[in-house]
């Protein structure tokens, strides 16, 4: 359910509209499908490692043990910072969403309420986080299911008057608009939409039966993406022509032109805007909740690997990494800078947090390639693995290539035109990752771990040594 909640958010409810407008219905479906397949491969890679060695904050630990401690150190800190910033972004977004109903109340007040709620849930037992995510995910899933039913009724004419049919799928330049470049731009939107599915691996260390629950969650990922994203985009593209200016303007700042809202209105549901605003508020709170959990567990895991201060590895009597939670809360408090310096800080937070997800996905794929090679180099039989990734090594190799393409393609215009401010905002995570990697490697003289020396079984690894 955590993985389910992590894959449904504003990327589906809002950004899918701009993808259809940019690349047409066919381009949007192809882009989301390819990215969805890549995410499925990534999840199977993570699943193979997580069922073999279930730990909290998993993939940074895997980079440390299977590749190079410097890579694990840099990936872990980037991922922690990314999710802590995401809490700030989502808390700010919640304030913007609440202004739909209360336009005269300062948005930072609502952001504060949401942040306090997130901190409270994560400060309680792990079961409190799981329970909150379960019900938030249920709301999102039911909304998507209702949308698909209503959308299909509109297409065949049961609701909204005359049947629309499939005319809009081939309207003007549809189904494919702009060719390969526009499909590449959909990769960016789809990738951001799917970020969060890796949380199934982050939670492995606290799962009662990781060898059973993780593979089950991973296998449902592909079908979930197929159902919720591909069918939703198909319905939107049938009901609304790709030339609709409302699709281009889809934004959390104007929920009335969310593609979901437009389809519900087309069906004659007058309450659509308020209902979708409530659902999107739920999605934003869910994302913030997951972000706080992921960042807290990541810094906790790094402390146990000797890559963060020991204090972050301590827990309270309920097993909560309370000091890690406090560190993540400190970064999340950047939320309130938007109330001081204006909306420019909000855009900066979004740009700063976006790219890190793709970088960590690349690290995850590299770790899996190294894990499998080390496993075989040390004489183990892959048939003994509790769970084996699908289509190895094609899956992780494809993931590395696609993630690299997406990273490079974040803002090519800024690079070609020498817009340094935009380049810094867009690609900030890349030099930060390199600086962290170089610092750790030079200080502790780490190196790429030989396959036969890779630590496959337990023990705390610190600076290339098992202690």
Describe what this molecule looks like in 3D.
The protein has 467 residues and is mostly helical. The chain has a single domain (2-446), classed as Amino acid/polyamine transporter I (Up-down Bundle). The chain has 20 helices and 2 strands. It has helices at 2-6, 10-52, 58-66, 69-98, 107-123, 126-156, 180-194, 199-202, 210-239, 245-248, 259-266, 272-304, 322-332, 337-341, 343-354, 356-377, 394-408, 412-417, 420-427, 429-444; strands spanning 461-462, 465-466. It has a two-stranded antiparallel sheet. The two termini are 36 Å apart. 53% of the residues are buried. Residues 459-467 have low confidence and may be disordered.
Layout of strands and helices, then pairs:
Elements: H1 2-6, H2 10-52, H3 58-66, H4 69-98, H5 107-123, H6 126-156, H7 180-194, H8 199-202, H9 210-239, H10 245-248, H11 259-266, H12 272-304, H13 322-332, H14 337-341, H15 343-354, H16 356-377, H17 394-408, H18 412-417, H19 420-427, H20 429-444, E1 461-462, E2 465-466
Antiparallel strand pairs: 1-2
Helix pairs in contact: 2-7, 2-9, 2-16, 2-17, 3-4, 3-16, 4-5, 4-12, 4-13, 4-15, 4-16, 4-20, 5-12, 5-13, 6-9, 6-11, 6-12, 11-12, 12-13, 16-17
CATH topology, what is it called?
A: Amino acid/polyamine transporter I
Number of strands: 2
Name the assembly state: single chain
Q: What's the arrangement of strands in the largest beta sheet? A: 1-2
Shape: globular
The CATH homologous superfamily is named Amino acid/polyamine transporter I
**Mean pLDDT over all positions:** 84
Output the helix-strand order. HHHHHHHHHHHHHHHHHHHHEE
State the helical fraction.
55-70%
Total number of helices: 20
CATH class: Mainly Alpha
User: How many strands, what sense, and barrel or not for the largest sheet?
Assistant: 2 strands, antiparallel
Span between termini: 36 Å
Tell me the strand percentage band: under 5%
- Structural class call reads mainly alpha
- Rounded to an integer in angstroms, the radius of gyration calculated over CA atoms is 22 Å
Integer tally of domains: 1
Organism: Limosilactobacillus panis DSM 6035
Subcellular location: Membrane
Transmembrane segments: 29-56, 77-102, 108-129, 141-164, 176-194, 222-243, 263-288, 320-342, 348-369, 390-408, 420-440
Membrane topology: Multi-pass membrane protein
């Amino acid at each position: 359910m955590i993985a389910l909640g992590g894959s449904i958010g504003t990327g589906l409810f809002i950004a899918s509209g701009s993808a259809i407008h940019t690349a047409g219905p066919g381009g949007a479906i192809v882009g989301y499908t390819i990215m969805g397949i890549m995410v499925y491969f990534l999840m199977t890679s993570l699943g193979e490692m997580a069922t073999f060695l279930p730990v909290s904050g998993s993939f940074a630990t895997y980079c440390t043990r299977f590749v190079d401690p410097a890579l694990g150190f840099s990936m872990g800190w980037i991922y922690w910072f990314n999710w802590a910033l995401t809490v700030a972004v989502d808390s700010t977004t919640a304030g913007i969403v609440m202004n739909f109903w209360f336009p005269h109340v300062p948005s930072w007040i609502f952001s504060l309420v949401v942040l306090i709620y997130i901190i409270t849930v994560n400060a309680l037992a792990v079961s409190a986080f799981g329970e909150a995510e379960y019900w938030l995910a249920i709301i999102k899933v039911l909304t998507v299911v209702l949308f698909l039913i209503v959308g299909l009724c509109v297409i065949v004419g049961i609701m909204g008057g005359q049947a629309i049919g499939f005319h809009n799928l081939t309207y003007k330049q549809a189904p494919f608009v702009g060719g390969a470049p526009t499909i590449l731009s959909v990769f960016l939107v789809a990738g951001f939409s799917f970020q969060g599915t890796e949380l199934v691996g982050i939670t492995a260390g606290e799962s009662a039966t990781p060898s059973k629950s993780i593979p089950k969650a991973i296998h449902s990922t592909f079908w979930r993406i197929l159902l919720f994203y591909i069918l939703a985009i198909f319905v939107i593209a049938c009901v609304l022509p790709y030339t609709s200016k409302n699709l281009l303007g889809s934004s959390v700042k104007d929920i009335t032109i969310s593609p979901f809202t437009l389809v519900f209105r087309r069906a004659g549901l007058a309450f659509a805007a308020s209902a979708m605003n409530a659902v999107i508020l739920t999605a934003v709170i869910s994302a913030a909740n997951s972000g706080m959990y992921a960042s807290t567990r990541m810094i906790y895991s790094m402390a146990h690997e000797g890559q963060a201060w020991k204090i972050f590895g301590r827990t309270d009597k309920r097993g909560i990494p309370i000091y890690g939670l406090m560190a993540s809360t400190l970064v999340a408090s950047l939320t309130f800078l938007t109330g001081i310096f204006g909306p420019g800080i909000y855009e900066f937070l979004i740009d700063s947090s976006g790219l890190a997800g793709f970088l960590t996905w690349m690290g995850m794929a590299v770790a899996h390639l190294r894990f499998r090679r080390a496993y075989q180099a040390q004489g183990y039989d892959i048939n003994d693995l509790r769970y084996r990734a699908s289509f190895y090594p094609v899956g992780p190799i494809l993931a590395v290539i696609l993630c690299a393409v997406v990273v490079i393609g974040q803002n090519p215009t800024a690079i070609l035109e020498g817009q340094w401010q935009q380049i810094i905002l867009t690609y900030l995570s890349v030099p930060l990752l390199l600086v962290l990697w170089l610092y750790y490697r030079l200080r502790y003289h780490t190196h790429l771990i030989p396959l036969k020396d890779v630590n496959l079984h337990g023990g705390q690894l610190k600076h290339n040594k098992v202690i």
